[in-house]
């Protein structure tokens, strides 16, 4: 059995481009907790041996990773390397989407503790337990190789966003402000409902403006991004727009002197059926971005229905037309290789892509990946046929299609292999 603490004095939170937003939020939660003042914290983009070697001269260290399912290979090699060089004096902790969906995979890989569910409160408590020589698995949501039963995120307490900063201002590790978490829709290709739940939670206007004012004054912020599964759902329960609440958020935050707001553009998006002329006109008045990310996903109603999208192709096309009319360049998410897609469905999606190109809209191309935690996690990964690959390739060269569609095809197959 592994010793819990061995007097940890430092936390090395491995930052990586794909997990930088969660790292910023988790470090924000740690740096604002006075009980953790004694902890030395690093968040390196690369992990040279010298960081851990230096920290281990004065005590033991925690090395934390926020893990996405598509990063498993890289993390496996890193964890093995750390164990070989530093042994048990480095306590390995994992959180993030993959930790919630496949905790035993990470424990088998060599992590000592895995955080299931949302990390803001749990990660603080886990560190406090290590600092005080207590068993971290006493914290709800923390598991180890000795845990008999693993909880699932929906059985754990949900975070109130206002109780935590959106980023780590003291450490100057900043990112977008997550203004909405959770989604009441249950698209089968998406892991958000499993990870964040169907109940929508918003960061309040007061908290959002408070942190942004500080970011402008203390860190010279000139622009900010908001994160949301559906930018137009702010303030409500997620199934329909509440324009007055959305406008209040936009009005108050954009009235901060010297701050431009980007919202509804990647990595946020909007659901098509939320787009109306009035709402988008108001929205456009406040945001700086001229692109609008619209989740259409397929040109086939049958595929949309199968994926549980709860909107039609026509609703997507109407949203795109409204966005163009108001002066946005629509960036339309399309997923190829969704389960049950026939040649006819693929042709319908390709036709939509050609139509969008003619309309001067852009396409954000994806290939279906069976993400752990999603309802379709056991489905085969999407595979592109020759015609789709050619058209996406040609559109990519013309900069009509963006996105990591070609990389996702192989990542999806890696996920299949991991099962
Ligand atoms: S794809 Fe978007 S709308 Fe669908 S479940 Fe995921 S977050 Fe919600």
Beta-strand percent range: 15-25%
Side by side, the strands of the main sheet go 2-1-3-4-5-6
Please bin the fraction of helical residues.
Answer: 25-40%
- How much is the radius of gyration in Å? 22 Å
CATH class of the largest domain: Alpha Beta
Count up the helices.
15
Oligomer: single chain
Distance between the termini: 28 Å
Structural class estimated from helices and strands: alpha/beta
Question: How many discrete structural domains?
Answer: 2
Global mean pLDDT: 94
Based on CA inertia axes, which overall geometry fits? Answer: globular
Question: What ranges have pLDDT less than 50 throughout 5 or more consecutive residues?
Answer: 1-5
| CATH-level-2 architecture of the largest domain | Alpha-Beta Barrel
Sheet with most strands = 6 strands, mixed
CATH superfamily of the largest domain: Aldolase class I
User: CATH fold name of the largest domain, please?
Assistant: TIM Barrel
- One letter per element, helices H and strands E, the order comes to EHEHEHEHHEHEEEHEHEHEHEHHEHEHEH
Written description of the protein model:
This protein is an alpha/beta fold. It has two domains: 10-155, 3-Layer(aba) Sandwich (Rossmann fold); 176-418, Aldolase class I (TIM Barrel, Alpha-Beta Barrel), CATH 3.20.20.70. It has 15 helices and 15 strands. The chain has helices at 20-31, 49-55, 72-86, 97-101, 103-109, 119-131, 192-196, 205-219, 243-254, 277-286, 301-306, 313-326, 343-358, 386-397, 405-418, and strands at 8-14, 40-42, 60-66, 90-95, 113-115, 142-143, 177-178, 180-181, 201-202, 223-227, 260-262, 291-297, 329-336, 362-367, 401-402. It has a six-stranded mixed beta sheet, sandwiched between helices. A four-stranded parallel beta sheet has the order 12-13-14-15. Strand 13 (329-336), helix 13 (343-358) and strand 14 form a beta-alpha-beta unit. Helix 8 runs parallel beside helix 9 (243-254). The longest helix is centred in the C-terminal third of the chain and has 16 residues, at 343-358. The chain is globular and about 65 Å long. The chain starts with 7 loop residues before the first strand and ends with a helix. Residues 1-5 have low confidence and may be disordered. The structure holds iron/sulfur cluster.
